[in-house]
Amino acid sequence: MSAVSPIAFAWRTLRRDLRTGELRALLVALVVAVAAVTAVGFFTDRVKQGMAAQAGELLAADLVVVARHPLAEPLLQQAAGLNLTVTESTTFRSVVMANDQVQLAEVKAVEAGYPLRGRLLIADAPFGAGSPVSGPPAPGSVWVEQQLLQRLRLAVGDSLELGALSVRVAGVVAYEPDRGGDLFSIGPRVMMNRADLAATELIGTGSLVEYRLLLAGANSTLAAFQQAVTPQLGRGERIQTVRDARPELRAALERADRFLGLAALVSVLLAGVAVATAARRYSQRHLDTAAVLRCLGAPQRFVLHSFVLGVVWLAWVGWALGAGVGFAAQALLAQIIGSLFAASLPAPSALPLLHGLVVAMATAAGFGLPPLLRLREVPPLRVLRRDLLPLPPRAVTVYGVAALVLLALMAWQAADLKLTAIVFGGTLAALLLLVVAGRGLVAALTPLRRQVGVAWRFGIGSLARRPGTTVIQLTGFGLGIMVLLLLSLVRSDLLAGWRDSLPPDAPNQFLINLQPEQVDPLAALFKEAGRPAPHLYPMLRGRLVAIDGHPVTPEQFAEGRPRRLAEREFNLSFMAERPHHNRLVAGHWWAPTATEEWSVEEGIAEALGIGMGSTLTFNIAGEERTGRVTSLRAVQWDSFEVNFFVVGPPAQFAGFTPAYITSFHQPATEGTFLAELVRRFPNITLIDVAAIMERVRAVMDRVTWAVQFVFGFTLLAGLTVLYAAIQASQEERQREAALLRTLGARHRQVLAAFAAEFLTLGLLAGLLASVGASGVGWVLAEQVFNLEFGWDPRIWWWGILGGTLGIGAAGLLGSRAVLSHPPLWTLRRY
Amino acid sequence: MLTILDGVSLAIQQGEAVAVVGASGSGKSTLLGLLAGLDLPSSGQVLLDGTDLATLDEDGRAQLRARLLGFVFQSFQLLPSLTALENVMLPLELSGRAGQAREEAQRLLQRVGLASRCGHLPHQLSGGEQQRVAIARAFATGPRLLLADEPTGNLDAHTGERVVELLFSLNAEHGTTLVLVTHDQTLAAHCHRRLELEAGQLVAG
């Protein structure tokens, strides 16, 4: 017996099975599964790279190394060695002088090549549109922001003193791609040529200078550089990507990333559902084969090995076909949307191919093998007595193995543990719900049968007669619909969130440093211009000196964001009412009479280890104010509204004189209002973020497109999977229908019987899927996407109607064979 | 516990053709299953070619089957995804004679009159044709004992007769011992000996 190799035998059997269509359902499921996973993988990979490139414009580079001291020579050589395009810039604060006036400015010295990404716009006069330039201003000249001209009463062409150097103002900075940073704590920009730096004699030991190395190049090269350099970084050196640089984009990009991760998860889940349903059918069909093989003298081991190897061979074939389909699908998709990105989409990496292979092997083995293991126990006597079935395996073993395989795959695909845990947990809960409901359905249908007509009795009877199949089908359909609903739910929340955060009239001007006596005149000016007066927020600067009575030192915090946050001064504000664009995530808003309380933004609270009930002490202009944290707020940083990390009740700030800050929308067409504003309130600082917002909006538009396309693609894959799942269970129905027709049932009656069965299944699956999707969607919105969750009734309509009609229609469509062939054909075939 | 066979004692000699007859549920199929080592008796002994089946494990019995036995079933039991030729080749491939499997299978199919249907799948064949393929498969490994379970049970009288003729002439050519379970008295009359089972007991033989 051992003479024939199970490998060869399995391959021969597979070829024969493939030829006769025996494996069609399982193969289709595998191909769809692999195609979905690889296509989503290829595509999200490319879109992520594309998004990063687009966002790079806001960093003026793809990657920046920031240091507190001149960058070491080896670092520069490393970048040059990798063929990356580089340019250096140096920024520091300094006073500039002109007309006997002094003004603190943010000086930036740049050299040839700047900016590497995006465009620098320089205008001839204040409030001009500007035209793109490249490289630094000519030696001996500078470009400045209009506030500086206003403060120092200068015009283009005048000179100013920058340290020991006298320079000529050659233009006005209209848009600087990487201006960003903390918008409220900076002076106006002075951009100079790096060659003049030494002559200013401003940079000495102890001065606070930021050295930046801007890099641009291919993604893989940048990644290699980042990997090589990160371990070498010393104190005060860090790598900055666009996510660190722009909080409003970080939020959007991270959510988009997570959405793409969710889409990948959904594709894995769908793959699992498809393969699980099809594999069950496959193993049932093989019960007889196993019995015959054993009768013919094949040992158990041989039967088992050849079936296991059959699954492995099948997985290879499914992978090869699926990866081909997946690659073609994403290439087509990239063709369609590639033009939406500024640059062409980068080439896909090969990693999704490996993902696809693992998905094929793991789903085929995870779902296909446990039922096949039963085959080993098929009593050979089955060939004589059809009623003998092997004992069913313990459910825990089968589903435990499959669930672990899925979990591992999901975690790998999504690369986000929290997201994976929530989706997986939700899926398990839904699975339980579906199994219980399936059992309940079978029990509830039995009394119902007596009260309905023949077609419904047969349809419903089919469900009750095969409780195992019914439960599995209901579970498969329910999970499939649920993950698709979930994806669409999160997608619409995500898009709505972005739309709401950046409406066309979102504030695009920040006005800071308004004095208390100017509050009323400012309101009057807005009224004169026929505009609504903007909401003014008082602002004070304070340093966090103690948490729970323990003094705060920057060193006690982790390197990176937490330490930087602890090092700098906070912008504090006070207010009686909660700002409408902030959401409380813990605690409650204070009473009007409250005194010693704080409300803290949740992100900074987490970074600094502050919780509800923590006591914080701030030093404001030499005086200490202490209070307890009584609420945590979620802040939409991408909204361009005025937001504060820490706010307190008005009484907390009694005795201080605050400056005021506001943001408002300035239509592009009305240039004179800003000039008038600056003329009447010369001390204020006006920061124009319209250009930055335009860029943010452009990036978000691309991301939105990407999300929509990936969603559509996953939806399509999901529908194919559901169709394949219906196909996989079609044979038994066909045989019964052929019997019905033999007994004289008309086409219409057979169709009605199918419809009864599928509509019942679809209705229940849709209903339960809606419950599951709403529940998981809620947790995801709260925990992962930081979005306000809206109970969307449309989900229920889509789930129930879509489930009922979709599964009903697909079921009927799949049953055409029964009606298009004579009953004898069906009876003899199965 | 249900007693299906009780006090059945019999010996079958090399080259004999034995018919087991009896009503439905009299234990015919169970007896056949025991003879083939597809199941073990709860008490008693089955000796096949001198070997006590109870001393072998499942795989040992499977090996013995592969070496000694051929099967013909009432419901044919052809593998649906294999062609007629491949079905006949299967036992040869399983016993490690893949090299000569094709030639031998073709010869046997020719012998049963199906040379022209080699490439057909079971569902493309009539019942009689399927049973002829099954008979060719049963003889492929040159078994010493052929077990047939209602070989004509699913066939009309005329087709059944032709299948029986074929079965007996092949049996004669190969000098195989034949045990067949049947309802069909004409078929039973072809055999050297008739065993009648009634409620699990041997009443004539």
Word description of this protein:
The complex is a heterodimer of chains A (830) and B (205). Chain A has three domains: 6-53 and 250-500 and 697-829, no CATH class; 61-240, no CATH class; 509-688, no CATH class. Helices cover 54% and strands 17% of the residues of chain A. Chain A has 24 helices and 22 strands. In chain A, helix 8 runs antiparallel to helix 14, helix 11 (395-414) crosses helix 12 (417-448) and helix 20 packs across helix 24 (823-829). The model of chain A has no long low-confidence stretch (mean pLDDT 79). Chain B has a six-stranded mixed sheet with strand order 4-5-6-1-7-8. In chain B, strands 2-3 form a two-stranded antiparallel ribbon. Chain B has helices spanning 28-35, 58-68, 84-94, 98-111, 127-139, 157-174, 185-189; strands at 17-22, 47-48, 51-52, 69-72, 145-149, 177-182, 193-198, 201-204. Chain B has a domain at 17-80 and 142-204: P-loop containing nucleotide triphosphate hydrolases (Rossmann fold). Chain B starts with 16 loop residues before the first strand and ends with a strand. Chain B has seven helices and eight strands. Classes of the chains: A alpha+beta (830), B alpha/beta (205).
Overview in brief:
Chain A is built from 24 helices and 22 strands.
Output the keywords.
heterodimer; A: 830 residues; alpha+beta; 3 domains; six-stranded mixed beta barrel; six-stranded mixed β-barrel; 24 helices; 22 strands; 54% helix; 17% strand; B: 205 residues; alpha/beta; Rossmann fold; six-stranded mixed beta sheet; two-stranded antiparallel sheet; 7 helices; 39% helix; globular
The proportion of residues forming helix of chain A, as a percent range, comes to: 40-55%
Radius of gyration of chain A: 33 Å
Number of helices of chain B: 7
In N-to-C order, the SSE pattern of chain B is: EHEEHEHHHEHEHEE
Distance between the termini of chain A: 31 Å
Largest interface summary: A-B, 35 and 36 residues
Shape, principal axes of CA atoms of chain A: elongated
Q: Give the helix proportion of chain B (percent range).
A: 25-40%
CATH topology of the domain at 17-80 and 142-204 in chain B: Rossmann fold
- End-to-end C-alpha gap of chain B: 27 Å
CATH superfamily of the domain at 17-80 and 142-204 in chain B: P-loop containing nucleotide triphosphate hydrolases
Number of strands of chain A: 22
Number of domains of chain A: 3
The spatial strand order of the largest sheet of chain A comes to 2-3-9-6-8-7
Major sheet characteristics of chain B:
6 strands, mixed
**Secondary-structure-derived class of chain A:** alpha+beta
CATH class of the domain at 17-80 and 142-204 in chain B: Alpha Beta
Low-pLDDT runs of chain A: none
Number of helices of chain A: 24
